[in-house]
Specification:
By secondary structure, this protein is α/β, with parallel strands linked by helices. 35% of the residues lie in helices and 20% in strands. The strands form three sheets. A five-stranded mixed beta sheet has the order 3-2-1-4-7, with helices on both faces. A hairpin with a 2-residue loop joins strand 9 and strand 10 (146-147).
């Protein structure tokens, strides 16, 4: 095992690299804009970050990469990526040829969950469900310290299940289905919902601030969001029964979620008591890139 672990988080707007020492201490972190729509440019950006980091640190490291999708078990090509220019591409093979080493890939939500289960908010838990609530919605499962990828490499993909319960409308999702959890619980989904119910166009953080200041429309938007999040997570609890659900992504910064959602999800959980905890990520925006580095643990 290399003493230096490199992790890369390949996001839709930025590509970030982190270097971890053997004890998990972060010794370097950098980011560059993602060349959106440009596959060759994306490969070059990742390679440039890795080569510069190793040059600066004076040593070669293991390399794990979190991606917004998964590798097909059949073809080895990227699938299910909302960064659509990656779909159908042999990303791992191309990076291995470019960087002349073995590369480990995992879904970005799996990397987030691994980071939080290793030395984050869920470090004391046997089973952790990691949730990303941001531009998209993703999930990852870590059981007994290991990522559960699944037979089809889709374990934890709760964002593309249909939202439980009744809704007046079922929005179309980029995946081709309607009513996916992502279409209700992503950041853009909250903004659309607020406008749909008569509010002004504003960022989720502004909606939360206005709600705290007494704005009734903003408060109603948050209540709808919390009810939907509770129903969606209750379905996860009924199947996985995790010790903890750890939230990451931009919407995880809404502190009221951690008090309100567990009160709401009890109505839909099939148990007379509920020990599962809803936690905010310890490593925040760094969790994905740290988890990618931990793929070599």
């Amino acid at each position: 095992m290399a003493d230096l672990r490199l992790g890369v988080d390949l996001g839709g707007t930025k590509i970030e690299i982190a270097a971890l020492a053997a004890d998990g201490a972060e010794i370097l972190r950098r980011r560059v804009p993602t060349p959106r729509g440009d596959y060759a440019g994306t490969l070059a950006a990742i390679a440039g970050l890795v080569e510069q980091a190793e040059s600066d640190l004076g040593q070669r490291g293991s390399l794990g990469i979190g991606i917004p999708g998964a590798e097909s078990r059949v073809s080895g090509l990227v699938k299910n990526a909302n960064s659509t220019w990656l779909i159908g591409r042999p990303l791992r093979n191309d990076l291995q040829e470019l960087l002349r080493r073995e590369v480990r890939l995992a879904n970005d939500a799996n990397c987030f969950a691994l980071s939080e289960a290793t030395d984050g908010a869920g470090a004391d838990c046997e089973v952790v469900f990691g949730v990303i609530l941001g531009t998209g919605v993703g999930g990852g499962i870590v059981a007994h310290g290991r990522v559960l990828a699944g037979a089809n490499a889709i374990a934890g993909e709760w964002g593309h299940n249909r939202l439980p319960g009744d809704e007046a409308e079922w929005p179309a999702c980029y995946c081709g289905r309607k009513g996916c959890v992502e279409t209700f619980l992503s950041g853009p989904a909250m903004c659309r919902d607020h406008v749909q119910f008569g509010g002004l166009s504003m960022h989720p953080a502004e909606i939360a601030a206005q709600a705290a200041a007494g704005n009734a429309a903003c408060a109603a938007t948050l209540r709808r969001y919390e009810a939907r999040l509770a129903r969606a997570l209750a379905a996860v609890i009924n199947i996985l029964d995790p010790d903890a659900i750890v939230l990451g992504g931009g919407l995880s910064k809404l502190d009221r979620l951690y008090a309100s959602v567990p009160k709401l999800w009890t109505a839909d959980v099939f148990s007379d008591s509920l020990a599962s905890r809803l936690l905010k990520s310890r490593h925040g925006d760094a969790s994905g890139v740290r988890g990618a580095a931990w793929l070599w643990d």
